[in-house]
Amino acid sequence: LWAYYVPSQFKLTSPMKNVSFYRWGSKTVKHGFCATCGCGTFTETPDWSTGEPDFDNPKISVNSRLFDDFDLDKVEVVVIDGKNLW
């Protein structure tokens, strides 16, 4: 479950030594992981809202489950049938 922000809204509070990064495939998205446990923490990505990467409008996505006092039961979930609706 990811929350999306513009870079000015994001501040990494963990020391960089605690973060590992990986880019796969096209190397367009920079994925941040906890260097200790491997949990996906955040990504740096271009905006994809048009279906194409907009490198002039970057986004930061944050793993919402890592927020303090996050209550998953209060999140509205919309199920998308990715197999049949594309």
Plain-language structure description:
The chain is mainly beta and 86 residues long. The protein has one domain: Metal Binding Protein, Guanine Nucleotide Exchange Factor, Chain A, CATH 2.170.150. Helices cover 0% and strands 36% of the residues. A hairpin with a 5-residue loop joins strand 3 and strand 4. The protein is globular and about 40 Å long. The relative contact order is 0.23.
Set down the secondary structure blueprint.
Layout: E1 2-5, E2 19-22, E3 30-34, E4 40-47, E5 54-63
Low-confidence stretches: none
Number of domains: 1
CATH topology descriptor:
Metal Binding Protein, Guanine Nucleotide Exchange Factor, Chain A
How many strands? 5
Indicate the proportion of strand residues: 35-45%
The CATH class is Mainly Beta
